[in-house]
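User: Hi! I'm working on a homework problem where we have to compare a predicted structure to a textbook description. Could you give me the structure for the chain below?
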Amino acid sequence: MTDLVPRAERRTARLILRRPTPGDIDALFAIHADPATNVFNAGGPMTGIEQAARRFRDWDHQWQGHGFGYWAVVEITDADGPVIGFAGIRYGGWRQRTVLNLYYRFTPSVWCRGFAAEAAREAVDLWAAGLTADPIVAYTTPDNVPSQRTALKAGLERRPDLDTHDGTGPATVFALGWE
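Assistant: Happy to help. Predicted structure tokens:
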């Protein structure tokens, strides 16, 4: 691990990326319950705040165990303003292998401003600084072209050899460090 791991807050040119708090559960629910953010999500939108609270607890457990995870994202120009999205990396699995899952989901009002790619790039940079030897992976549905563009802008490479079709449908995969 590197000295980068304990920093729960990071900054990019336009964003503050910080460890989520219980106060972010409402924003987590609002973003994940929005039908627009779930167009390509086979599981569909969240339907209750308790789902957001569970997801927060899962994310917080990752932070407690590893010192990093998904961030709550706010704009630097409005540091006390609302959470506009969630992004980052956390442990998961892909093809029976431990990986870091690259994640990004933002409120539709800030789409097309490059925030997802900016936050995702910061997560990839954290990984590339020596965070772990485990590969970093982003997967999406074949028709989710905006997410695919974000993965490429973050520096991941398209890996058709890692594509799969599971119970929720086909997955288009991007990765770094997969040997």
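For your comparison, note the following. Confidence is low (pLDDT under 50) at residues 1-6. The chain has four helices and nine strands. Good luck with the assignment!
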